[in-house]
Every structure is written in C-alpha cells, then in structure tokens.
C-alpha cells in the first residue's frame, strides 16, 4: 500500500487486522482481544479492543472507581474497579418485623409460631386446645393467650350458674316466692293467707307472686251511741248503747248522769 515495512514488523490495518512482514510477504489476521475484565468499555475511536479502564453496566458507562446503585434499586451498592462491577446487598438480620417501613432496604417475613406441636402464621388467632374461652394470637414468633372477658353480673353469687360449653356465668331466675315476707315484723304468710296488719278495718292477702294486697272496710251502719267491740272494725248499733262511758243493753232504763230527774232508755233503731 505504498509503505515500506521492515522484516518482522507488526502493525494494524483498518478493520482491526493485525499484519506482519515476513520474508517480503504481508500476513494479516483479525486481531484477537484478550479482555481481563467482566464489564469492559467499548473500544475507543480508532481502537479495536474493549478497555478495562472503566465499566459498562446495564448500558451505562461508568468511570473507574464509580459507586452506584443498579436500576432495580433494593439498596444494592455497586462499584466499578478495573472493568469489573462488584455489587453488595445489605445483610438483613433474621427475626420479626411487625412494622416494616416502605423505605427499609430489608424485606422481612414475620416469624411463625410453633406452639404445642402446631405452626401458626403471624397474626393467626386460635383457641387453646379447643377451649373457646381462651383466645391466642401469634405475634412475631410469640404466642399470647388471654381469657374471654365476661360481663359484670348484678345478681348475688348463689344465683350465678355456668352452663355446659359456656365461658361466662349467667344469673339464674330467682325461685318463685312461696309466700309473703313482711320486713316490719319478720312474719312470712303463705300464698292466700288473709290477715289484719293491726287495723281491724284493713284486711291484707298474700298474692301468688309474693306481693301483698290490702283493702280497707267501709262502715255503712251508723248510730249516735254505738258499742265499739275491741278487734271489730265497725261499731255495733244492735248490741246496746254506750253513754257517758257506760254500756247499756237494749231497752235498759237508767238515770241521766247530767240530771237525776231525767230517765233515759237505750233503744235500737
């Protein structure tokens, strides 16, 4: 090509042909490149072989010593050294992560719970050996159990009962009253009993529900001088007369206490 070459000389022709002068002949062959790196840069302009003085990673040229993160992120850090790209991912400690933040580099799976020969997922709720009165929950590898809360009862202890399969006691219905109990004198009357509470004009009866019903007697017979019999409600106008503190029988004649010249007689009308 119009250029004189010394025997044994070597040069490069366009198209990355490596040529040598041997005994007046030119021998050419395609150059073979030895690239001792994993992410070489493309050959520079006018060059034939890639270079390891930088890195080509995911289509992006990186300078020697450049530190960067890959496109998928995930907190991985990469560095370009002598044409090689080395990436490091963060080491996430094992364990539970009850409240992982979206910005955290480490993705985590909450620990499962091994409890009495069974495995439960995080957040699982279950009963203790079929006992519906106890509720357990798996939280980050730990099992917490608690009893079912019971409502407050407004009945006395002797009226509470716990039915089969129930977790909480309930109040029994109070027994049907067998009679009427009077708090004032402590006397209990059977159902249907009639009595007077001290006033002969008032009668009371013990009802079937344990209540007491009372009613007064109205006296319709009147006379000016009746006889009042102890324990009897209404005065008696047929038995005689009461006059000046004395009792006289029917048709009995007696002197007046105010005037001895007057004679009185008890008449039933």
From TrEMBL:
Pfam families, per the entry: VWC, VWC2L_2nd
Record protein name field: VWCE protein
Lineage start: Eukaryota, Metazoa, Chordata, Craniata, Vertebrata
Keywords assigned by UniProt, alphabetized: Glycoprotein, Secreted, Signal
Record domain VWFC: where: 1-53, 53-114, 111-172, 178-238
Keyword Cell division: no
Organism (species): Hypocryptadius cinnamomeus
GO cellular component: cytoplasm; extracellular region
Compartment list: Secreted
First-listed, main subcellular location of the protein, grouped into a coarse class: secreted
Record-level GO BP terms: cellular response to virus
UniProt superkingdom: Eukaryota
Record flagged with keyword Nucleus: no
């Amino acid at each position: 090509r119009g250029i004189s070459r010394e025997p044994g000389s070597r040069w490069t022709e366009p198209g990355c042909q490596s040529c040598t002068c041997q005994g007046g002949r030119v021998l050419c062959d395609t150059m073979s490149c030895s690239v001792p790196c994993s992410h070489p840069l493309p050959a520079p302009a006018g060059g034939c072989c890639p270079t390891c003085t930088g890195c080509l990673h995911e289509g992006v040229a990186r300078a020697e010593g450049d530190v960067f993160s890959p496109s998928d992120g995930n907190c991985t850090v990469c560095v370009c050294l002598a044409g090689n790209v080395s990436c490091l991912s963060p080491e996430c400690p094992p364990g539970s992560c009850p409240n992982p933040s979206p910005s955290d580099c480490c993705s985590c799976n909450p620990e499962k719970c091994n409890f009495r020969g069974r495995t439960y997922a995080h957040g699982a709720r279950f009963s203790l050996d079929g006992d519906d009165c106890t509720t357990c929950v798996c939280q980050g590898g730990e099992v917490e159990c608690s009893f079912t809360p019971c409502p407050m009862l407004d009945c006395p202890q002797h009226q509470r009962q716990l039915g089969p399969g129930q977790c909480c006691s309930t109040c029994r219905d109070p027994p049907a009253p067998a009679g009427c109990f009077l708090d004032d004198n402590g006397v209990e009357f059977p159902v249907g009993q009639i009595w007077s509470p001290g006033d002969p004009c008032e009668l009371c009866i013990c009802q079937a529900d344990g209540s007491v019903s009372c009613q007064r007697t109205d006296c319709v017979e009147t006379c000016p001088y009746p006889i009042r019999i102890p324990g009897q409600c209404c005065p008696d106008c047929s038995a005689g007369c009461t006059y000046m503190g004395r009792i006289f029988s029917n048709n009995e004649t007696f002197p007046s206490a105010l005037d001895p010249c007057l004679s009185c007689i008890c008449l039933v009308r």
